[in-house]
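Something for you to look into today, if you have time. Just paste the record in under my message, thanks.
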Amino acid sequence: MRYISGMEPAATIVRALGGPSKVAEIVGVHRTRVSNWMRPRAKGGTGGFVPQKHVGKLLGFAIKHDVPLTAASFVPAPAEAA
């Protein structure tokens, strides 16, 4: 999977957790669902947002496996949110 620049924070989170296949395994969805987090909304993606319903599982995995993610990691920077 090519990480699409500007599709933050999803691209950074997915990369930190081991890629789309690993993240899909963690949250229990197909890999293409995770890939859609890194696609623009105009192309059927989430525009870089990680669906809220998956944040808890991803944070739990990160804590358990010493991956440096926090709740703040899931919030886009102000310039990205615009």
